[in-house]
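Reminder to self: tokens first, then the designed residues, so the page reads top to bottom the way the pipeline ran.
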């Protein structure tokens, strides 16, 4: 009786494909830690009655990568309450156009809207003025939030409750510590919409390195900020209680989390002493194997897959990107250490450094196939992401950059290359997937897995996801999922709504064609896997041998690179 009803709607937007349709799936692969953080912080503000004893919160969360946003229902719900706020959370540069299109619908209905995430935070951190797209959003009456929400969101919610949102909330110079903060959490009905019922949380933020293409160091800082082991254990147990035992730990570089060992020790105890079932994916740098006990404890704690920022094998390129921590001569040792503990390895590879040409990239991919025992390689186009030093330099130099933020997804050419035309660069990116995932190398991946004691069947779905998603759905695997949704009504603002007699027959054909090709490719992988598993002969591969230090420094990986001696 007498309570004021306050509705908070949290939306993690997707972005548009090349035809202007929202990239959305029945079940998406990558969970949103930003959504989990904002949901938990908002629930904490509600539970503490921080906005007053008479304020009753109603909180809803959506990830557009797997959920159609019920815009009309949200508008009705907020209009029926005393106050409301729509928050578009974790918005990356490529998602900003879609976020504004969603926000525009709510603003037209008089609903308060705020946008936060890496695009707003990175631009406010690195640029002397608001770029046109962010300024246009502000002029629509959308509040802009830069920084992290821990300890700050309460002010935004209080202003929204009073109907007096500020145009900009800038906390970039005041990043919070993570000890004793509210930990990320999403209810099971949302997590079930991700593949494998996969949860997400960050155990720390920040990275000490200076990679010029990276936005993390300018948005989250270069100082390691970490969560206490008690907090990580509590959030893991809360998820286990609702049936979630797979996690994506979203730290950009977990190896530089200063509290990694205490966190691993807690997870090890839960697995080995309590018999808990849990596993996770982490991201690390190429020197993580040098940290005593890191790889071993990661495996014991439940690390099933690890993503490694390989980026390139050309020392000139790494030096130009200020990625001095990547030491090419240690790459093989790094991958072998993870293989020894039966952990599947992913690596990111960037195409478009100044020294890259089609011939050099093809040669370097062949070198990786032959010399490095990495399981899965995913390719990216070197992109001047807003918030990075590369973007700031091009902005300062007034160099051309594509004005369409939707293309800043690491899949599209958005700046000019000194040695390649834009179409040549774009074509090379697509060709890289074909070169690496050749039938011969897929068989080699399976054979290396078997020789290392890793069941080849563990790799079948990963190869299917990483290669087939890109070739068939024309999106990067990290944006992938199961069964692509494409709604005629969800098209980018400014593009016409297609005639249903054109749209629906084409869509039926797309779905049929995709699943026929999917079945054929799966059968192809299945036959290779069975052939490898039945082969009684031991498999020998130079990439599975650890050379002595002098061979590492003078071996095939390094000798084939220009400027290797200097590196």
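Designed residues (567 positions):
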């Amino acid at each position: 009786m007498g309570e004021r009803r306050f509705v908070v709607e949290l939306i993690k937007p997707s972005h548009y494909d090349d035809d202007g349709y929202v990239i959305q799936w029945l079940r998406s692969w990558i969970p949103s830690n930003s959504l989990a953080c904002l949901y938990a912080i908002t629930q904490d503000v509600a539970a503490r009655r921080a906005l007053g004893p008479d304020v009753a919160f109603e909180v809803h969360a959506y990830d557009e990568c797997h959920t159609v946003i019920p815009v009309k229902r949200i508008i009705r719900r907020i209009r029926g309450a005393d106050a409301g706020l729509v928050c578009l959370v974790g918005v990356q540069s490529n998602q900003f156009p879609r976020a504004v299109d969603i926000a525009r619908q709510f603003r037209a209905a008089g609903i308060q809207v705020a946008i936060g995430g890496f695009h707003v935070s990175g631009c406010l951190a690195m640029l002397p003025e608001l770029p046109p797209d962010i300024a246009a959003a502000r002029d629509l009456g959308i509040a802009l939030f830069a920084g992290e929400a821990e300890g700050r969101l309460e002010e935004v919610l209080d202003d929204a409750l009073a109907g007096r949102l500020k145009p900009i909330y800038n906390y970039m110079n005041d990043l919070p510590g993570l000890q004793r903060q509210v930990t990320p959490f999403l209810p099971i009905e949302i997590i079930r919409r991700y593949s494998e019922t996969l949860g997400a949380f960050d155990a720390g933020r920040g990275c000490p390195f200076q990679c010029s293409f990276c936005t993390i160091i300018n948005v989250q800082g270069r100082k390691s900020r970490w969560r206490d082991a008690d907090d990580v254990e509590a959030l893991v147990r809360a998820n286990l209680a609702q049936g979630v035992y797979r996690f994506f730990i979203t730290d950009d570089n977990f190896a530089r989390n200063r509290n990694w060992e205490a966190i691993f020790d807690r997870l090890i105890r839960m697995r080995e002493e309590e018999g808990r079932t849990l596993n996770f994916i982490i991201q690390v740098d190429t020197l993580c194997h040098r940290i005593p006990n890191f790889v071993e404890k990661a495996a014991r704690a439940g690390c099933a897959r690890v993503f490694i920022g390989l980026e390139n094998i050309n020392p000139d390129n790494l030096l130009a990107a200020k990625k001095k921590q990547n030491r090419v001569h240690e790459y093989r040792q790094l991958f072998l250490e993870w293989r020894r503990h039966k952990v599947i390895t992913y690596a990111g590879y960037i195409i478009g450094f100044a020294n890259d040409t089609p011939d050099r990239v093809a040669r370097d991919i062949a070198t990786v196939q032959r010399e490095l025992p990495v399981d899965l390689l995913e390719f990216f186009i070197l992109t001047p992401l807003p918030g990075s030093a590369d973007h700031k330099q091009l902005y300062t130099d007034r160099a051309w950059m594509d004005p369409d933020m939707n293309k800043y997804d690491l899949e599209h050419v958005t700046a000019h290359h000194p040695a390649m035309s834009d179409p040549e660069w774009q074509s090379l990116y697509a060709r890289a997937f074909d070169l690496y995932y050749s039938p011969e190398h897929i068989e080699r991946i399976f054979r290396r897995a078997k020789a290392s004691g890793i069941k080849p069947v563990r790799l079948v779905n990963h190869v299917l996801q990483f290669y087939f998603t890109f070739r068939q759905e024309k999106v990067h695997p990290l944006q992938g999922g199961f069964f692509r949704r494409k709604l005629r009504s969800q098209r980018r603002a400014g593009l016409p709504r297609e005639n249903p007699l054109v749209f629906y027959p084409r869509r039926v054909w797309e779905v049929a064609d995709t699943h026929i090709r999917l079945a054929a490719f799966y059968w192809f992988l299945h036959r290779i896997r069975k052939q490898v598993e039945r082969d009684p002969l031991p498999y020998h591969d130079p990439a599975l041998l650890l050379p002595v230090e002098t061979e590492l420094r003078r071996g095939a990986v390094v000798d084939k690179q220009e400027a290797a001696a200097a590196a």
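The chain has a mean pLDDT of 91.
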